[in-house]
Design a protein that fits this description.
single chain; alpha/beta; Rossmann fold; 4 domains; eight-stranded mixed β-sheet; 29 helices; EC 3.6.3.-
């Protein structure tokens, strides 16, 4: 998508082609609206509710699990269909998360003005001003603009009376700009001074605001390693279900006498239940559910710290970030100026009594207290107080077109005229030999990134003219040089230091002057030497050669100025091509596209509504120092979900082994679904609720799936081998199915609980209590008649109980030794695994 290039003060549209301000008639307006030339904003998010439902409901995974659930209900085995809860819960959670993201995007708006003022001609030809809905502004309408208005469509200025526009939210340029006739105004910008008329040249979907809105509204989910990894696991399991399912179904039918006998005698019903139990055991139904629980709890914790989580997966996102892109204004800085220094022209400080001109402090106090003072003059108020009794003779308010303001006093404490403004303008008419040193000094200060003004004095009176045509007084001599800087957030230095310690690279990206951006970045603690990189010289990313050149610059430079919204987006994509997981912070509409495409978009609570809507996280109080807390929560979620994944996937591994072995041996499956449910509850379900919420400050390491596989495959094979051995002993001993099933429940529970023991280390009182409760739970279940009747368990003979306990003890010992060996070997390959994950 190509956005219009934002105009700059020195590249305004020529006035020669400007149309005279003739308003449209009401009939012409109706015709344009009928042709679709209105100003309605795009509303499509690219993904309907029905498509969201389809994506989450109609999957092969849900077809198999949901089909098994429905079949058991139809056959009357509702006790064995309890696993259906997780299928329903997973679908509901998936749809709810995506639909919430869709609703958030649908509310995204760059234009917030409820109405627009336009000139229209009635049927008699008389012109009058009308207030209309923003959507009813049409092409060639004449907008009536004054201070406080938002520009509702792209327009060209026709008439201007001191008209000043603030485009900072769109372009990142912090200064208000003079909007002379012929200058193009971007929709979404704000009028901060003066008044004027402007003709609409682009509206609706073609306007600057609409183009940003349209791309920002396109539906997407946060890039989540947890979600991606779990989705990949489920895809693998789903593929395995088809061939394994065929083996299982055939094996269970053969176990009851063959297909013909099973159908003729009705034994196919029991075979169906056994097949369902075997297939459902392979599926980690609770993993998605418990991951969502862990993310939701993390989101609630962050909400208590003034962090709004727009999408649950964003909780873990920042823990994976290794590149943090920062906007300057509103993120690193508070968005206001502070006085940096005041120097007398001969090099002495002005707040020293040495050589200070009479009345300098009173004059500066007046400029600071003036009700029309701009942000720069207001910053003087912290050091200089106005003199209440100072008699004012005349004044000229500040204008971005003039770049100076002036005041004349009759009071002997500050007699004469005082001018505060841009050095090259205020001293432009003076003798260069007299002011050359001052101008050299101001250029030196400006080159360091400071905003520089000069205070000049003249014994002459201010020329008597209208403010719009104001002229400087004669005989101006420089009195002082003043420098201003943006107020860096007090928490910025500490927060950036934290990210440096964590190995996170920093890029500062702003629409302001590169020198100013570089100065602020250094003060905030960004390691950078020299001026920032001027983004106006960046190559386009539309060609392969341009992308390669851009990637090289992004890898080398750390501070960028004069960056447009599309360039911010291109920079984020470039860093992602370089292999980084990118977080982007910002508060203006100019940041929206970059936030949208970053792996993690973070908006300031005081920022533009459109920016907050597209971000994954919103810092409600705007405190930059909240980011380390988010990292900590994300790490806890990743570490705990990784532990849960190992628990659930160990079960999937041994379940697949059961299914294949019993299917090929044509043995009856040794569990009913309800029996597996109780084993899962003791070994996985209830412990998972606790493990998912435990504190965990382990640093993020790439390779979640690799580590999970390295743990769960040997665990599953050992647990599965132990159970198969005990069940084979029981079958060969000629025991009843209920006795075999009970023996299998005891063996599987005791052996699988040792997997929980390994994952709970190092023990705390909480994890120790969970493990003890899980072991005790097995004894409670076997001791309560109501539970054994519901589960259809029978008491095995002492011989089988001893075999089950002994086999479980041996299996647990083998598990422990195996994982100690794996843990000892893991550090040697960790660095290589991290590099491989980074390349991937």
């Amino acid at each position: 998508m190509s956005l219009p290039t934002p105009p700059t003060p020195d590249t305004a549209t020529p006035t020669s082609g400007v149309q005279p301000p003739v308003a449209l008639s009401l009939a012409e307006v109706r015709e344009r609206l009928a042709r679709g030339e209105g100003n309605a904003m795009p509303s499509d998010t690219g993904r309907s509710f029905w498509r969201i439902m389809q994506a989450n409901l109609f999957t092969l995974f849900n077809l198999i699990v949901g089909g098994s659930f429905a079949l058991l209900l139809v056959l009357g085995y509702w006790q064995d269909a309890l696993f259906g809860f997780f299928v329903i819960a997973n679908v509901v959670i998936g749809v709810a998360q995506e639909f919430r993201a869709k609703l958030t995007l649908s509310r995204l708006a760059v234009l917030n003005a409820p109405l627009a003022r336009v000139l229209r001609r009635d049927d008699t030809g008389a012109e009058s001003m009308h207030e209309v809905r923003v959507a009813d502004v049409v092409l060639d309408d004449i907008l009536v603009l004054s201070a406080g208005d938002q520009v509702t469509a792209d327009a060209v200025v026709l008439e201007a009376n001191g008209l000043e526009v603030d485009e900072s939210l769109l372009t990142g340029e912090a200064d208000a700009l003079d909007a002379a006739p012929g200058r193009e105004l971007l929709s979404g910008s704000s009028i901060v001074g003066g008044s004027g008329l402007a003709r609409v040249i682009r509206g609706g979907a073609d306007s600057y605001a609409a183009r940003i809105t349209a791309e920002a509204k396109q539906f997407s989910l946060v890039r989540s390693e947890l979600r991606t990894g779990i989705a990949r696991i489920i895809r693998w399991i789903t593929i395995a279900l088809l061939p394994v399912g065929a083996i299982v179904v055939n094996g269970q039918m053969q176990a009851v006498g063959g297909w013909e006998v099973a159908i003729a005698t009705g034994a196919w019903r029991e075979a169906t239940v056994a097949s369902a139990a075997s297939l459902i055991a392979m599926i980690p139904q609770g993993l998605v559910f418990m991951t969502s629980v862990a993310l939701a709890v993390g989101a609630v914790k962050l909400a208590r710290h003034e962090v709004l989580v727009q999408e649950l997966a964003a909780v873990e996102g920042l823990a994976r970030v290794d590149m943090l892109c920062l906007d300057k204004t509103g993120t690193l800085t508070e968005g206001r100026l502070v006085l940096d220094s005041v120097e007398e022209v001969n090099g002495h400080r002005l707040d020293s009594p040495l050589g200070a001109p009479t009345g300098w402090d009173a004059a500066l106090g007046h400029f600071a207290a003036d009700r029309d003072a701009n942000a720069t003059a207001q910053a003087l108020g912290e050091r200089f107080a106005a003199v209440a009794s100072l008699e004012l003779a005349a004044a000229v308010p500040f204008s971005s077109a003039r770049k100076w303001s002036a005041a004349e006093f009759r009071d002997p404490r500050a007699a004469g005229s005082w001018v505060l403004g841009a050095p090259d303008i205020v001293l432009g008419g003076a003798d260069r030999r007299a002011v050359g040193a001052v101008l050299a000094r101001t250029s030196e200060l400006a080159a360091s990134g400071l905003r520089t003004l000069v205070l000049a004095h003249s014994p002459e009176a201010l020329p008597e003219t209208e403010p719009a045509a104001a002229r400087l007084p004669a005989r101006l001599a420089p009195a002082a040089v003043l420098t201003f800087r943006e107020k860096v957030r007090p928490d910025a230095h500490e927060t950036l230091g934290y990210f440096r310690e964590q190995g996170v690279s920093i890029r500062v990206i702003s629409g302001d002057d590169p020198r100013t951006v570089a100065a602020v970045a250094r003060e905030a603690g960004v390691e950078h030497v020299g001026d920032g990189f001027d983004a106006r010289t960046l190559p386009s990313d539309e060609t392969e050669e341009g992308r390669a050149e851009l990637d090289a610059i992004m890898a080398r430079e750390a501070v960028f100025g004069r960056v447009t919204p599309e360039q911010k987006k291109a920079m984020v994509l470039s860093l992602q091509r370089l292999g980084y997981t990118v977080a982007m912070t910002g508060d203006g509409v100019n940041d929206a596209l970059a936030l949208k495409h970053a792996d993690m978009g973070i908006a300031m609570g005081s920022g533009a509504p459109a920016t907050r809507a597209v971000a994954r996280l919103v810092l409600l109080d705007g405190q930059f120092s909240r980011l380390p807390r988010i990292v900590a929560e994300g790490r806890q979620v990743i570490a705990n979900v990784e532990r849960l994944a190992k628990l659930f996937l160990s079960k999937t591994t041994y379940a697949i082994l059961f299914a294949v072995v019993f299917g090929l041996l044509l043995w009856p499956f040794p569990f009913l679904p309800r029996q597996l449910s109780i084993v899962d509850g003791l070994t996985i379900g209830l412990p998972a609720l606790v493990l998912a919420l435990l504190p965990n400050v382990q640093k993020y390491r790439p390779g979640f799936l690799r580590r999970a596989a390295r743990f769960c495959i040997p665990s599953g094979l050992i647990v599965g081998g132990t159970l198969i051995s005990v069940v084979a002993y029981a079958y060969l001993g000629g025991h009843e199915p209920a006795i075999v099933q009970t023996t299998a429940v005891i063996t599987l529970t005791l052996t699988a609980l040792w997997v929980l023991v390994i994952l709970s280390r190092p023990f705390t009182w909480i994890t120790g209590l969970v493990v003890v409760a899980a072991y005790a739970g097995l004894g409670v279940v076997l001791a309560i008649p109501l539970a054994t009747d519901f589960l259809q368990l029978g008491m095995p003979p002492l011989e089988l109980i001893i075999v089950a306990i002994a086999a479980s003890a041996i299996g647990s010992a083998v598990l422990d030794v195996t994982h100690r060996l794996i843990a000892r070997a893991a550090p040697a390959g960790a660095a290589g695994a991290a590099r491989a994950a980074r390349r991937g």
